[in-house]
Design a protein that fits this description.
The structure is a homotetramer. By secondary structure, chain A is of the alpha/beta class. Chain A has a single domain, classed as 3-Layer(aba) Sandwich (Deoxyhypusine Synthase). Helix content of chain A is 50%, strand content 16%. The first copy, chain A, has a six-stranded parallel sheet with strand order 7-2-1-9-10-11, sandwiched between helices. In chain A, strands 3-5-4 form a three-stranded antiparallel sheet. In chain A, helix 1 crosses helix 14. Chains in contact: A-B, A-C, A-D, B-C, B-D, C-D. At the C-D interface, helix 3, helix 6, strand 4, helix 10 and strand 8 of C face helix 3, helix 6, strand 4, helix 10 and strand 8 of D.
Chain lengths: 314, 314, 314, 314
């Protein structure tokens, strides 16, 4: 049995030592330490790892960390929303997002052409530059073929980028597919629509891409899910593992609670009733802000996996 | 200036009287009373009303209320996720969902073939019956045409149902389009995929459907948003109003908080920075469980609108 | 087994009908309907009812409702914090609190002498008038005796007030004791301190008052807890029931979640491990804003209890 | 202006480097990095530092960290609830608390004599041993004097303990007063009551102790507040700074949100309207689990303060 241990600061303490201590503090710290262990187990046991995150996390500085995890092969399959992929492209093209506060005069921001995501700020200009970047890309892809499953579409875009910190770039380079079940739910929706107006035979084939995610793993393979935040990203990944016999490992990190019955707040336990994760799986649900907790838990896992030589390009 | 007033129970108090009182209690009760007023204003001023909700709300008994709101023309455009539409079909076909508790033995549920959504339960059988119902529908639609925008696809399904309490049925009957930006993120994804395997020219055209939502309103029309919960449903509706000059009215009801920077927790104020709602718009953000709060606020509005003869079929 | 039922609006719907419907909607609506039933049961079975609330609820318009519940004998014992009792006195003396918004310029408010509690506002003047009111009261009490258990102290104050909507007034009039385990944690702390400087033999006897709450019930009596919000009010009541063999009925309503291990978020289930509530007790935990949910659940119970002639003065 | 920066893992990363990175990630990570800076500023500017925490944090392994902070003089005044002080004594006497899960069979735990606090477990035995320990202490204190202000009472107990990791021990040894505005709200309440039954002249003087906290600082001194969680601990400390002209520095860390109008969720901004913190103060509100976030933010501050020789005994 584990016991509560008094935490004490030692000068120069490393993140990995800190996460070790969390296992004996209590409440969500225990959950976070568990999550870190599940990360290690899914990699050590060669599970196919699904990493899902929401758009706002790509707005944040987690974007480069996600790219790094893809590079290190700590993620085999990405599921996310289109807004994040748009911002990944913006950043790859040099756009900068600034840091403000949660309490601001939003009318004033609007007048200045600044769009707020919590305490982060995106300029209208970044969206305009995105538009300029995306049109030639659509033309090139259309020349190649007319009917694009979503993940293949984003893979091609990734190959056209040149930024080590880009999710799309690293995913394309490392053969990690990116699934995005609602590709029109962002600026992309508008640009694709305008393009299709001129090229009516241009098609995004979402059905075909469901086949792609379904066949990205199988019943025999061990499967792990790292779901950051909620939304369709989380749901789509666990739907895929459900159809492939359930995941052996699952970590959910979110600020949502189970009490509203939402997907965002659904726990790893609830997932068992569906067979989304296996009855005897290793699971952890951690409640809190992903920007603080996810790197903590993952760093600890990376340090251990690095020791064991289990990280690619690491 | 409004003042706090002591609430007192009177025997036989009506919901509308209760919501009136809430305006002078405090905290979220004030927000809820505001929301009710914004509902009235958007209807009185003939705004095009976007109603968005998440799948779990259709799992719940709100489903029939949504259908009723469509019938009364309190909603002109629906945006939701595919899971809810699947469950709407199941219920229209006679499936029953049972009520349990949030704390259960999920492994035991799994063995019994019961899937849990918070404290609600869906049998595996309901999914099997759904499969049986959906295949002939796909065949019929395929005979009509090969390439379906999502909202047209669901309209056809609605026309095949026969249930006054069905969202799809009432929407089809009352010419209210249902947009669903991630149609493959559910059982539908699997069935569509299997169908396309046999009929490779069968296409769901998500790009075309973006045009449909974009053109469902315009810059000149007044626009109102009622966003229940978060997710892409909420985001997709406000993206559409953003591209049409911003909404004049907006009510967000959610359990999510703005502090994580998520779309689910994004407030009506944050929306102003983007131009998603207009600077001088009537807005209310209410924090709490939609199953309790939304009917409360809407009932009060319906009673007032009924008096004024502003409800269709009412 | 209970099933999900589609909710439908009927013109003129009463609160009691609405709460009936909630039992078949889902998520927190089911919890709220359960809570309402537990209220009925605790009264029908003649349980000694502990009602606890936090200070901000007295800032709100719930204050008059609490007074009414005391008058109706739906509460036999009150536990609360001192801030609320101060505001009850202010309101009894005619002070008005105004309604503002959660997002304000707090520096500007400070300059205007306005103190903010969420979206409610208290003027500095109200605190000054409170001071003027409280000093003669302290003098009178000191003349009676020098050593005051907290609940006896507040009972005397209640007898000096003249406001049907006052918690202190109704409690004194109906022999309902008010326990307040941290009497110095508010403006009272300062005024009592200044008074004791002049009268060093003036004592507030908190130990004696622990005896008073302990003996306010016993092992044989049935006990019910209605804990609104968290804090020491909730803890103190359940500590008392724990020492008296555990409660048979318990309803917790709060916005706090169990995931942080806090008392505010502790559930009625957790209470079983302590014996705070009995193993076989009737319990409900409802998550959400008390200003909306508590009157809803209680109104439904009052209507039923009124029918059965179980309300005093009702 | 600060910009979002991509976070990248480097092997062997230290906690202080990690917290530096958080300043450029986004959402609560930015708040946490701010909080860390405010900790540094309050110490560098010789503010009188109030540290407040709730009982469950002492149940957790933060207890030893709080003791260490007292020893290092990062806290000049402690405000907390009595349950935590009881558990500090239990731990000082050798009791061990174990780690379990949030989802357990609470009836089974009750039968085993195990009391649950979130995912932490306290045996009934620990409470019995506490009783055995406390009675001789009460006798000794009673021999010294009959009338005890709370903080003096706990100081004496601290002097009788012998555990470097004890909050009471370090506080007594380092002349840091511990204020506890509701001393009877725990097992202490019962033991003090039983003791007073035998010794009616035994008095806990809470009014006198209000004077002690009021005079623990003054208008001229700079003041800082570190409020972990909510409850009367937080309120009592800010009440004291309010009466002394307002704090120059304030960090609130909590899982509660401002939307319910509760003290637990009240922000550092709201505090400005009251004058609890000064208009131009350095403030940060961080939302999330204290067991993970507080050590993170504080470790970074300690490392910097250590470099500058500003930590006592460090």
């Amino acid at each position: 049995m584990a016991y509560v241990k008094d935490f004490k600061w030692k000068k120069g303490i490393k993140v990995s030592e800190y996460v070790d201590s969390l296992a004996n503090i209590g409440f969500q710290s225990v959950q976070l330490a568990n999550a870190s262990n599940v990360f290690v187990k899914m990699k050590k046991n060669s599970a196919k790892i699904f990493l899902t995150f929401t758009s706002n996390m790509v707005t944040s500085g987690l974007r480069g960390f996600f790219a790094q995890l893809i590079q290190l092969k700590m993620a085999d399959i990405i599921v996310t929303t289109v807004g994040g992929l748009e911002e990944d492209i913006m950043k790859a093209k040099g756009e900068k997002f600034s840091i403000g506060t949660f309490n601001t005069d939003d009318v004033e921001l609007h007048e200045k052409g600044i769009n707020r995501v919590g305490n982060l700020m995106i300029n209208n200009e970044s969206y305009m530059n995105f538009e300029d970047a995306i049109l030639p890309i659509l033309n090139k892809l259309y020349e190649k073929k007319k009917r694009w499953p979503v993940s293949e579409f984003f893979r091609e875009i990734g190959l056209m980028l040149d930024d080590e910190d880009s999710i799309l770039y690293q995913a394309a380079k490392n053969d990690v597919p990116i699934f995005c079940p609602a590709i029109t739910d962002g600026a992309f929706g508008f640009h694709l629509y305008m393009f299709q107006q001129k090229h009516p035979d241009f098609i995004i084939d979402v059905i075909k891409d469901f086949g792609n995610i379904l066949l990205s793993t199988n019943q025999d393979e061990k499967k792990g899910i790292i779901a950051l935040g909620g939304s369709i990203s989380k749901h789509h990944a666990i739907l895929c593992t459900l159809l492939n016999g359930g995941a052996e490992y699952a970590v959910y990190m979110t600020t949502a609670h189970k009490t509203s019955g939402s997907m965002s707040g659904a726990t790893t336990n609830e997932a068992k009733s569906w067979g989304k994760v296996k009855d005897e799986s290793d699971i952890a649900t951690v409640i809190g802000d992903v920007t603080i907790m996810f790197p903590l838990a993952m760093i600890k896992a990376l340090e251990e996996l690095k020791e064991d030589g289990l990280l690619k390009n690491g």
